[in-house]
Amino acid sequence: REGRHNPECLSWGIDKERVLRGRTALEVYFDFMRSFRVEFDKYFEDGFISMIEVGLGPCGELRYPSCPVKHGWRYPGVGEFQCYDQYMLKSLKKAAEARGHSIWARGPDNAGTYNSQPHETGFFCDGGDYDGFYGRFFLSWYSKVLVDHGNRVLSLAKLAFEGSCIAAKLANIYWWYKTASHAAELTAGYYNPCNRDGYATIMEMLKGNGVTLNIACADLNTLNQLDVFPEAFADPEGLVWQVLSGGWDLGLPVAGENALPCLNRVGYNKALDSAKPMNDPDRRHFSSFTFLRLSPLLMEKQNLLEFERFVKRMHGEAVLDLQV
Questions:
Q1: So what EC number does this one have (predicted)?
Q2: Scanning 4, 94, 249, 306, which has its CA 20 to 30 A from the CA of 114?
Q3: Known catalytic membership, residue 61
Q4: Is 185 known to be catalytic?
């Protein structure tokens, strides 16, 4: 909206526009994926590369870059809509005219700034414009552009990496999850207010492309978030469960990863609870788990013992409790 450029990803608006030296963004993406597959052919054929996670946006996640720290965003700001380059505005104008309301060819003018809170805005507050006629039109368009972008890129990935397991990562935008509008999710492209399942169309798109769903933040505890930022109405566990349930109900393979450095049993147990929910009658579980944030601290004896215990439990082995 301020005219600044974000280097984290290309605008979805140029997926089919020949503005990259005569090529579209989709053609560039496909050329890169195909080149990667050829360059590392031996590792694919020998099974060393067992899964490819295809980047679909900032941090590799299927979302808009709605909360960039370099532009001043700080947690738990609602973020800003990212629809102001000429190509996105052209798409919005076309959608508004097709709907018969050309005046709707604009972004919301009362959605605050990167660090606003929902109740401070006319768009995201309880009973706000997000749930009005224009708001529903805009959010439907905004989220559809994101899902269509994911679908196009993953369709090409299936061709480039034929025979390989492909994963797509969703962000866990869990702050303001306990408010009516779910403001931070809306600016990220997840049209998931309290009266709508905003992840259903995403799951269907992933299912249609036969990819694995990857969800971050399997280790976050809602109570901890409320202790640190009680005003953010955060619920990482609630959001993870909504996404996991939506994926599993469609039969999607689901992978996970931790968001924070994890060295103790509390964090490991939280990840295990997400990976293999207790008392699930269908015995659903993650197909894989990526352990992130490795550090030299992991090599300390007690930390390494806890990590060993975590890995064994993740693989279903019975282990004796270690002395904490």
A1: 3.2.1.2
A2: 94
A3: yes
A4: no
